[in-house]
Structures are given as structure tokens and as C-alpha cells.
Putative NADP-dependent oxidoreductase YfmJ (Enhygromyxa salina), 670 residues
Amino acid sequence: MTQTTTRVILSKRPEGLPSDDNFTIEKAPVPEPAEGEVVVATKYISLDPAMRGWMRDAPSYVPPVGIGEVMRAGGVGEVIASRHPKFSVGDHVNGLLGVQTVACVPGDGLHAVDPSLAPLSAYLGVLGMPGITAYFGLLEVGALAEGDTVLVSGAAGAVGSIVGQIAKIKGARAVGIAGGPDKCRHLVDELGFDAAIDYKNEDVAARIKATCPDRVNVYFDNVGGEILNAALTRLATGARVVICGAISQYNNLEEVKGPSNYMTLLVRRARMEGFIVFDYAERYGEAFRDMGGWLTTGKLRYRETVVEGIEQFTDAFAKLFSGDKLGKLVLKVSD
Amino acid sequence: MTQTTTRVILSKRPEGLPSDDNFTIEKAPVPEPAEGEVVVATKYISLDPAMRGWMRDAPSYVPPVGIGEVMRAGGVGEVIASRHPKFSVGDHVNGLLGVQTVACVPGDGLHAVDPSLAPLSAYLGVLGMPGITAYFGLLEVGALAEGDTVLVSGAAGAVGSIVGQIAKIKGARAVGIAGGPDKCRHLVDELGFDAAIDYKNEDVAARIKATCPDRVNVYFDNVGGEILNAALTRLATGARVVICGAISQYNNLEEVKGPSNYMTLLVRRARMEGFIVFDYAERYGEAFRDMGGWLTTGKLRYRETVVEGIEQFTDAFAKLFSGDKLGKLVLKVSD
């Protein structure tokens, strides 16, 4: 019996915020798996800021998605056919399934996940790329030390919310920057941040000064733009600025705004460093072991925003940029 | 007998390029040295881009020069009176003497120099702050490795010219960015750089691409602005960007231009790091030993531009920004 997949194709590269004009949704038969391939019924699709970069025809750490190709995305699902020795029908897997309801993909790119240990969607968030991005970004690139003050932007998002919590677990202070009073309350009251800054309603520079009296040892940046610039002015000597993303700039139609205060790196003998979490692939096990333990003991909490239906892809994706979501944003494709 | 000093006082903070309006030149009696102080007859005054920062009323790694105070500057001279046990009349010393012909200063801030080993002015350049800035900036902050491609801006200047030569000594490729064909020829023909880029007459981005086919492992930045931005686009994976200065921005009347291409730090897993050479004070000996050896064996060459007369201070200082000089710029005060 031939399976049918509903898939979202990149039909035109976006300028600015992607809209329905940039994608077509089509139905297509799922091919029979070749040797080494696995057919997966998608349950949840991950919506990540990095996907905006993949839509751009520019050199980066991975090739852009081609026009006419299925939009690239991480996902979790259930194996419904397999010609790969590691996977059997009924297994649950995580990998680059693309924005489609059924995926026929090489098994070598998939990882088995256990739905009895955590909800499937958690493998796209706290136990997935956002979680390990927070983990290695803060601990390795940020070289976190006990007693540090950690400032994180996009703090109510999938990565930022974990950065702040790991900081607390490791004996640092955590201050988060997020949009709106609800998110700020969530950071402090539910996630245990020491303070939160509402960039939509407060003077960010003044609030960083007030909430980080000993200056900032690690600034974990997910947003770029004026918030990065403000954070740079309050770096401590020897500070580390972790460049994880720049969501404020991804849909910019003009030139990206560079951090005009970058010379504080000199005055403060500080460094600004970028990273790609894939470079830590051999050490993912460490992160999953620690994060799993913290989840079990309740030290680490997470929230997610679930949008239902693959045809909602464009609207759901836009929530990453409008901020109209909390924690990890996922698209639910099937039960 | 009371000595008289001619001294340059900061009378008004400059906006943009400093001019004679910002300084007054006055004669004053030299005080009798107190216990621990030394009176020095200045021979050469160092003119450095960092001095522009010291004229600004903004927090930095040292306090600003106050209005009405002698302009801060490094210098070398001869001891003419001493109440410090380490220094005797006739000794030659290096330290923050200020822009004045005779300085009465604490002896603890001075270092003895030997005019029989190198010309006195060399202790302000290759054997002074510019030399050790190049040395620790390239080898420590830049973490130079054999086979690296090193790109340096301000390459015909006091620091940049040494950066490129140390790169060559250590088995790396050196490419310099400088203003005008004469400086570029000097870099390649006299200092042994592999290639030079004339930012005044060439397309910098295109020339970086052409001269650094394996991309850039270390970019040593003295200038900031558009050249920094161009260099960022050609970083190699794991590259180090050493922030030493931003001379293109120091006299800016508008907001500093931040590097809009900073997100290449993420794509290339690269870091951008600032430093202050004073932090390496305990290791200066290493640098002076290596640099002295390279000078003796002719592996390291230097040039200087000498302006005569303390009353020429403002005009001479302006040459740092106009580029109308080669190598280390010094003001000669007396024979």
C-alpha cells in the first residue's frame, strides 16, 4: 500500500518574514524505502530560528534548502517501514524529517528516542537541539564558573530558558531578557531566574545595570541588535559573549545591525564567540545524561507551545519572531 | 637650580580629530623630587592611538586625562635627579613621562633601558608597548599556529608591522592591509609579508579573498570599521579575531560602526577577543628576549617616523589618523 505524505515545499525565497507566498503545500506518494532508508510517520515538527537561515541562498554551515525542496526541519515520529538494521516498525526516532507528515529518509541520520522516559515533543526541546545548544553553549563556549552572573536574551525561549536554569544549577546568578511581563514572571517565578528584564517595556541598559551589579561574566545572545549592544556595555573583565543567534536580525530587509559597542571587548579583555552545536556531536551523551537527571529531579523545567496541523506551518513559524509563544515551539502533525 | 619643563596640557576635550584648540603649551618649574620620585629629561615621546581614548571622558581600562593635566604619554629619557634607590643620574628610563620636556614621576613606574643595545626610540616601538602588544596579541590572544594565514590591518604601523613579521618567523603566512602603494611595497619588499592590500586603492573584500585562498585563521585588527567587516567574511573555521584597536573610529563624531558581519563568528565557530597588553606585564621578559634576539639576527625590522619639537605635538599626533607616517611615530624632544 502506497503511503501519501503532505509536505511543505520552499517555492520562493522569503525577503523579510516568511509568508504563505514562500511555500506550497502538496500531497505526494511516499517512495518505497531503499536499502538503509526508513519511513517515519511524523508526530511533531520542530520550529527553530535557524530554519530562517536555511531559507537564505547564502553560504553557511549547512547548504540552503533548494527551491522546490521540502523545507528542512527536525522532527520526531514513529517508524512505519524500515530497511535499516538499527530501526524497526514501531520505534520512535528523532532527526531531520522535514516539514512533512511522512518522511522517507536515511536511517543513519536518525536517533532512537524513548517515549516512556519523556513526552515525544521533549526530544525536540529540552532533550533535543535547543537543550544541548544551551548546555554546550553555556558550559563550554561560555566557560561558566560558579558565582558568575549569566545574562541571557530570548530567555523565555527554547534555548534561553534552559541556559538560565543550567546557570542556576551550576551556582551562578541568572538574569533573563524577555518580551512582556508574563514571560518575565514565568522566568522568575517558575524557572527560578534571579531577575528578568522586559525589553518591550523597560530600559534594557538601565535594567542590566540594576540587575547585574557585579557586571556580566557570560552573556548568552539569542537576539542580536540593540540588546546585544546594551549587554556589551556591562561586561565584566574577562567576560564571554556566546553568539547563539540573532533573531532580531533574521528578517531584516536592511543591513544587519552590528554591535557598535564591540570595543568593550578590548576594555574588558572579553571575547565574543560563535558556535554550532553539531561540533559537539561526540559529546551529546554527556548533555543528555545531565539534562535527563535534572529533569527527573525537577531541577530543570520546560514549557512548550504546540500548534496543530501541518498546514499551519507558516503561521506557526512566524511566532518565533513575534514572540507569541513560550518555551519550545512545535508543530503537531499527528497523534 | 630649578629646572623648567615645557608641557602640553589637555585644556578642552576634543570632538573628532584633536587640534591645537584642545591643548595649551606652558612652561613650569619642575618640582623637587619627593622620596621615591625621579626627574627625567625626556628624549622621545611616544605617539599612540590609545592616547585618543585617554582624552575621552569615558570609563576605560585607565582613567581619562583630566582637564588641566599634562597629556599622558609614554616616553624615554635620561635621569637628571633621583630619590629612588633603583635609578641614578645618567640612567636611561622608559615610562609614562607625559608630553613634557622634563618629568618628575614616581620611580616605581619606570623601567631602565640600555641605549647601547638599541637606539633609545626603539624602546617606544619594537622593544616597547607596540612590540609586546604585537607579540602577546598574536601569539596568546590570536593563538597563532604554524601554517596559519594571518591578516593584519594597520600593517605598516608600529604594531601591525611587527605582527606580520612575527607571523612569518613562526611559520605562518602574513597578509597586510595598509594605505597606499608605498606602504604596501614596504610590507612585501622590506618586511617579508606574503602579500599586501592597499585599502585606499583596492577592493579590500576582493583582495582578501584573492590573497587568503585558505581563508583567515587570525585577523589582527587595528582599524575597525569596514575593514574589520570585510575581514569577518573570510574567516576560517575556528578563526581568532584579535581586537587591538579601531583607529578608523576614534575620531568619529557619529556612533561607532559595529561589525555587521559579526554573525560569521557563528557560522565559522570563531571568536573575537580584546586584550590590554598590561595584563601580560609579568611576562614582558619573554617578549623582550625573543624580540631582541630577532632584531639582532635581522629577522625583525622596524621603521620609525620622527617629528621634532614638543610644540609639534598636535600635528604629529594627527599623523596617526591621516596615515602620513611609516612604522612607529615618535616626537623627538631633545638629543
Remarks:
- The radius of gyration of chain A is 20 Å.
- The mean pLDDT of chain A is 95.
